[in-house]
Amino acid sequence: MIQPEEIWTKASRWYKDILASSVRDTPEFPRFISFGKVKAKDTLDNFPLIRDGIEVLINESKDKKGYGYTIEFIQRNDQKIGTQNFPDKIFFETLDDYLKFFRKEKEYEHFIIVVQKLTNDLPQLLPWAKSNPMKVIDNLGKWDDLIKVCKYFLENPRPNIYIREIPLDISTKFIEENTPIIRALLDIIIEEHVNRDENDFRKRFNLKYDEPLIRVRILDPGIAQEFFSGIDDLSIPQSQFNQLDIPCKRVFVLENKINVLNFLTIPSMGDSMAIFGKGFGVGTLKGAAWLANKQIIYWGDIDPHGFQILSQIRGYFPQTRSCMMDLDTFREFEELATTGACTDVTELEHLTPEEHLLFNHLCSLETNNRLEQEKIHHRYVLKKIYETVDV
To answer: Is the pLDDT at 243 greater than 90, yes or no?
Structure first.
């Protein structure tokens, strides 16, 4: 015999569908609960148990409580137990019966209020609300402010200000604390302005953010004097770096923090500048279109990761040449090599055949597969740099 707990479990699964159907329509009722009917042969063996179960079922029904599920009975005659009534149908007759049974009246009322607000202010979000009714529920109490944020971005789809500068009468932390739901909404209402490749909320929706700084050295004193009042060592926000157009011929990119000493001591050189690449941080350079017509010289550690970074930057700027990342240099200082981290990458698209051979060789070594930049003495470095420049 089905019990109220089972009815609760089965009927609770309808809630999401009821909410969804309430977005544009009226939920369909009555709704019936499927259950196993009492068979005639069972009444003879288990009638006292069945009778008690029916009594519990009735006591929790609409007939007794004024709301909840309704029971329709069927009458049976039996020679041994006489005429008895057994449940034939169990159903929720109205939406109100259902909501009261689950104590969802207030929650549903607030849901409908939100739907009405979206209908009036942001009807383009109604399909989303229909597909995601539980997310509407999860954010009850926030929708007035969520709608304010959405309407602001509709009017200013590319704000170019910091989140906390957005001129709304809401908590300054509201957007930061609710980015998942706001992202879902903005992806719909300002779809044509969204930077789909960006996962960071600020970048995705054209807001300012604390950008990474790109450190550069102007190696040509004349360029430093003309454009930077003689300053030759600068750290520039990424977006401003992308807008530069320094009139130099070549750009050196050096790999990571350990080797910043080489970045600082690379000599003055006409028509040249140097960038502190910060290892895999070279990705910050990809938006600098002005580098496309420069001679780019990359010098990184001779290890698998160094060649991964070389391939990465050459993917942005195909003209990139490597410096001191060859077999001769590795052999020259091989006794100074250490054991570096392995990599799962086996193919690098943007290496030359010679570079790929060295990359594969390093990957095959169990030890001593990393020659760091600082292990190469300064005299050799200067010689190779000048040779590269003269080519």
So the answer is: yes
Q: At what angle do helices 179-189 and 143-155 cross, to 10 degrees?
A: 40
At 152-191, the pLDDT tens digits run 999 999 999 999 999 999 998 999 999 999 999 999 999 9
Indicate the pTM of the whole model: 0.69
Residue 351: give the domain boundaries. Answer: 213-390
Same domain flag for 344 and 261:
yes
Do 241 and 380 fall into the same domain?
Answer: yes
